[in-house]
Amino acid sequence: MLRVAQMTYELGASARAGAAELSILLADDEFVRTLNRKYRHQDKPTNVLSFPQTAVYQNAVDHNLANQNLANHSTDPAAPQFGSVLPLGDIVLAYETLVREAHEQHKTFENHLAHLVAHGVLHLMGYDHEESEEEAEEMEAMERAVLARFDIADPYAAEHELEDMPTGTDKTK
Fold first, then answer.
1. What is the widest separation between alpha-carbon atoms in the chain?
2. Does 172 reside within a domain?
3. Which of 29, 115, 136, 173 is deepest in the core (most CB within 10 A)?
4. Whole-angstrom Cα distance, residue 67 to residue 17?
């Protein structure tokens, strides 16, 4: 999963973003439900939650810190000073939800987990599929590109096939 996170970051990051770190927590559904209720006002578990340090990330990109090893080399007093690694944020994954979804979608747990790690990393970098259809398509394209490098099938293929079915068709089969 770390390679998936790294490749997603490399694909989605500005060339100026530099080295980064993030945390990934695999938690139970009840814990994720609590976080989802507190931060998104939805009283249910969800498959992945991302808690970005977007302002830090954007500030680093804005001040072109990548090639300066992010280590106090900027002459700009507004540039962040935080050592050699940029903190992206935290990803929390709901284990039971991932197992259930993988089964329902006829995917391996590992492939579904890889997809949601990639998805979470993009959220940490400021991408938001709920902002616009264009941004959702951009996120999906990046997720597909990363997963393809690991020989993981397009996670949206079956979803799009269901969307294309005529109205009145049973989409649960």
1. 63
2. no
3. 115
4. 8
Q: What share of the chain is helix, strand, coil (3-state, %, to 5)?
A: 50, 15, 40
142 near 125, Cβ under 8 Å?
no
Domain that residue 18 falls in: 2-163
Paired tokens of 60: 């680093």
Contacts (Cβ under 8 Å, ≥6 apart) of 66:
14, 15, 16, 17, 18, 19, 60
Q: Is residue 112 part of a domain?
A: yes
d(CA 57, CA 80): 9
**Contacts of range 148-152, beta carbons closer than 8 Å, 24 or more positions apart:** 149/7, 150/3, 150/4, 150/114, 152/111, 152/114, 152/115
Token pair for residue 101?
């979804």
pLDDT in tens, the chain (173 residues): 777 888 777 777 654 567 788 999 999 999 999 999 999 999 999 999 999 986 655 555 555 544 444 444 445 555 555 556 778 899 999 999 999 999 999 999 999 999 999 999 999 988 888 888 998 999 999 999 999 999 999 999 865 443 343 444 333 33
CA separation for the pair 74, 56 (Å, rounded):
15
88 in any annotated domain: yes
Q: Could you tell me how many residues make up the chain?
A: 173
173 domain residue, yes or no: no
